[in-house]
Amino acid sequence: MTVTEDSRVTAVVSAPVAKSLEKARGVVRVGDLLELVPRAYLNPGRLSAFSELREGEHAVVVARVAEAKTRPMRQKRKTMLTAVLRDEQGATLDLTFFSAWGHVDKLLPGRVGVFSGTVSVFNRRLQLAHPEYEMLEHDAGDASDEVVSRFAEHLMPVYPVTGGVTSPKLRRLVQHAFEQLERIREPLPAEVRLRRGLLGREAALRRVHAPRLDDDLDEARRRLRYDEAFVLQTILAQRRARTEALAATSRVATPGGLRDAFDARLPFELTPGQVAVGEEIEADLARPRPMHRLLQGEVGSGKTVIALRAMLTVVDAGGQAALLAPTEVLAAQHARSLRLLLGDLAEAGMLGGSAIGTRVELLTGSQPAAVRRRVLNDVVTGDAGIVVGTHALIQQHVAFHDLALVVVDEQHRFGVEQRDALREKASAPPHLLVMTATPIPRTVAMTVFGDMETSTLRELPRGRSPITTHVVDAARESWVRRTWERVAEEVAAGHQAYVVCPKIGDDGPPDGEEELDEAPADDDLPPEGPDEGPRPLTGVLEMAERLAAEPALAGLRIAVLHGRMDPDTKDAVMRAFGAGELDVLVATTVIEVGVDVPNASVMVVVDADRFGISQLHQLRGRVGRGAVPGLCLLLTTAPPDGPTGERLKAVEATTDGFELARRDLQLRREGDVLGARQSGGRSSVRFLRMGHRDDETLIEQAREDATAVVARDPGLRTHPDLAARVAARLDEEQAAYLERG
Ligand code: ADP
Ligand code: MG
C-alpha cells in the first residue's frame, strides 16, 4: 500500500511509538509527523559547550570522546563502560553504559559523535546514563559512508523529546517517513508560489528536518507558515462563499417604529463608534444574506446598546431576536438590563405598555416548569420579540415564531458547530452578531474568526474612570494586610469590592455553570513554569471565612457568589450587591463578564497567577465602571521574573486590551516551544506565530491568495493537493471538537 500524508502514522512507526506521539503532540497522520519540526540544530563541525547543560534536562551535544574505560560489574556477569567527553573548555561529561557490549569499538578516544540523553549529576560530575549516540567519523566503528557524508554537510536537528520518544529516534522516524512517502503534496498553486517567492513544500519540509550547512532555514519556515495560513484561509474562504450563497430575510427598521422610539429615549448620545458600527449592522441586516459579524469592544464600550438596537430593528421588521449569554447569571442580568433600557417598550400587551412595544423573555434551564412553559409559548407565538438565555437556547428544542437575529455575548465557546445548529433553528438562516470584550489581534481575527466580518469599538463612552493595577507579593504579610485595609478604605468611602478566587473550595466537582465559571480551563492557562509548584488554591468559601475574621474588615457585609449556588440565591446576591446592600463580594470568575455595578471600585484577585492575561483583564473591567477610579490588586506568590511574573507585569503595565492580547499570544507561543502542555493540541496552529506582526502580513497575503483561488474554483477541483490538505485539516478540527466534547 502506498503511504500518503493522510496515512495513519502507524504506516511508518510502531504502534506503541505512534501512541506516544499522538498523546504527546497529536500526531495521527504521517503528515503530522512531518510537521513536528526540530527545536534547534547542532553543527556537527562545532563541539558543544557543556557549561550550558542543566541537570534533569534532555540534552543533545556534539562532543569528542576523551577516554573510555570498561570494568566488570560486581554482581552481574556484565562489563560496565564509562566514557568521558571533553569540550573545548576542558569541561567533562561522563557517559555510562551498564553493558559495554556494542559500544567499546565505537566510543574510541579522539572520535566525535552526537550524544543525547538526560543530564544527571553523579559524584558531582555531569553524566548521561546510557545515552543514544551516533559517531560522525569513518573509522569510528559503525559510521557508514552515508552517515559520515550526511554529517559533513548537514546540520543535526534536535527535536523536543516527545512522549518519551527521543530526539535521535524522532530524527530517524522522520527520515524514514520521507523515504516511505511516494510524494509530498504541494497545495500552493505554482503561480502563487512564484509571486510570493516561496519554496516548494517538499523542499521546505526536507530543509527543516535536514538542513545543509548553508541552507536558509528562515525561508523554509516562512514557507511552512504560509502553507498553514493558506490552508486555513482556503477553508475560511469556502465557508464565506457558502454563507454568501445562503438566502436570509432582509430586515429593515420601520420608520417611527420600535428602534426609532428607543433611540428617541436614549438618555445619552451614542459615541461616533457606536453610530458607525450601528450603520454597518443595519446594512448587513438589510441584505438578503445572513449577517456574520463579530463585534469587539472593551468591557463597557457600549456593545449591549448596539446589540439592542439591532434586535429592535428585526423586531420592527416582524422577526425575533435571541441573545445568548455564557452563563445563567449573565443571561438573567442581560434580561434585566434590556428591560430597564427599554422601559415600557418592553411591556407589550401589559397595562401601560407601549403600543409598538415588544416583550423581553428570559429562558433558562433552571426555571420552574410552569414559567418555562409560558415563555416557550411566547417564543413560539412570537409575542416575545427578544429572548434571552444561555447557549442551551439553541441547543435544545426551542421553537421560534420567526428567528431573525441571534446575538452571542462573549464568543468563548461559540464555534462553527453552534453556528450550524443555529441555522437549523429558523426557516431561513438568522443573522448573527457575536460580541466579545476580549480584544482579538488581527492574526486571530483573520484565522479563528476569518469567516466573519468584524467591527471594533475603540473608544469608551465618556465618564469611564481609569483602572490602576498592582501586583502584590502575597508572601509578605504586611502587604496582604495593607490590601485588606485598602478594601476597607474603599468601603468606608462608600464603594464596594470584589474578591476573586480561582475555585469554590467545597470539594465538590468543578464549578459547573457552563464550565466558564471555575478557575481557567486548562487551555486558558499558560504552561506552568519552573516557578509553579503544585500549591493548593484558595477557595471562595475559605476566603470568605478568612475575610470575616480579618480585623481590617470587621463589620463589613461580606457575601459569596459562585456557580454552584442555586439560581435564586445567586440572583438575590447579585441584586443585593447591585443595590449596595453588600460591601464585599467573594466570587469565582462568575463575575468575569457582564456584571455591571458602577459603585464597585476595588477588586482583589487571589492567586492571580492562576489566571491568564485576558482573563485578568476581563475581570478588572468590573471596576472603574462609574465615576470612581478603579483599583485592581493581584495577589500572588509567583516570583516576578518567571513566566508567570511576566504575565502579571503585563497586566499591571497596560489597560490596552489589544496590546495585552498580543502579549498574551507571544507569551503563549513561548510556551509552545518550551512545554508539551500547550503544544499537544491538534488543530492548533503549528507554525504561525499569532502575536507576531510579520505573520500578520503573511496571513493577509494568504487570505488574499486563498480567496482568489476559491473564487475561481470553489470546489478546488483543479487543486487536488490543496483539497486534500483542507480535508485533513477539517478532519482534525472535527476530532478536536469531539475531544473537547
Ligand atoms: P459592554 O456591553 O460593551 O460591556 P455596555 O453596553 O454594557 O458595555 O455599556 C456599559 C455602560 O455604559 C452601560 O451602563 C451603558 O448604558 C452605558 N453606555 C453605553 N453607551 C453609552 C454612551 N454612548 N454614552 C454613555 N453611556 C453609555
Ligand atoms: Mg456587555
From TrEMBL:
<feature type="domain" description="Helicase ATP-binding">
    <location>
        <begin position="284"/>
        <end position="457"/>
    </location>
</feature>
<feature type="domain" description="Helicase C-terminal">
    <location>
        <begin position="511"/>
        <end position="671"/>
    </location>
</feature>
<protein>
    <submittedName>
        <fullName>ATP-dependent DNA helicase RecG</fullName>
    </submittedName>
</protein>
<keyword id="KW-0238">DNA-binding</keyword>
<dbReference type="GO" id="GO:0016787">
    <property type="term" value="F:hydrolase activity"/>
</dbReference>
<dbReference type="InterPro" id="IPR047112">
    <property type="entry name" value="RecG/Mfd"/>
</dbReference>
<dbReference type="InterPro" id="IPR027417">
    <property type="entry name" value="P-loop_NTPase"/>
</dbReference>
<dbReference type="GO" id="GO:0003677">
    <property type="term" value="F:DNA binding"/>
</dbReference>
<dbReference type="GO" id="GO:0005524">
    <property type="term" value="F:ATP binding"/>
</dbReference>
<keyword id="KW-0234">DNA repair</keyword>
<keyword id="KW-0227">DNA damage</keyword>
<keyword id="KW-0547">Nucleotide-binding</keyword>
<keyword id="KW-0378">Hydrolase</keyword>
<feature type="region of interest" description="Disordered">
    <location>
        <begin position="501"/>
        <end position="537"/>
    </location>
</feature>
<keyword id="KW-0347">Helicase</keyword>
<dbReference type="Pfam" id="PF00270">
    <property type="entry name" value="DEAD"/>
</dbReference>
<dbReference type="InterPro" id="IPR001650">
    <property type="entry name" value="Helicase_C-like"/>
</dbReference>
<dbReference type="Pfam" id="PF17191">
    <property type="entry name" value="RecG_wedge"/>
</dbReference>
<dbReference type="InterPro" id="IPR012340">
    <property type="entry name" value="NA-bd_OB-fold"/>
</dbReference>
<dbReference type="GO" id="GO:0006281">
    <property type="term" value="P:DNA repair"/>
</dbReference>
<dbReference type="GO" id="GO:0003678">
    <property type="term" value="F:DNA helicase activity"/>
</dbReference>
<feature type="compositionally biased region" description="Acidic residues">
    <location>
        <begin position="508"/>
        <end position="531"/>
    </location>
</feature>
<dbReference type="InterPro" id="IPR011545">
    <property type="entry name" value="DEAD/DEAH_box_helicase_dom"/>
</dbReference>
<keyword id="KW-0067">ATP-binding</keyword>
<dbReference type="InterPro" id="IPR033454">
    <property type="entry name" value="RecG_wedge"/>
</dbReference>
<dbReference type="InterPro" id="IPR014001">
    <property type="entry name" value="Helicase_ATP-bd"/>
</dbReference>
<dbReference type="Pfam" id="PF00271">
    <property type="entry name" value="Helicase_C"/>
</dbReference>
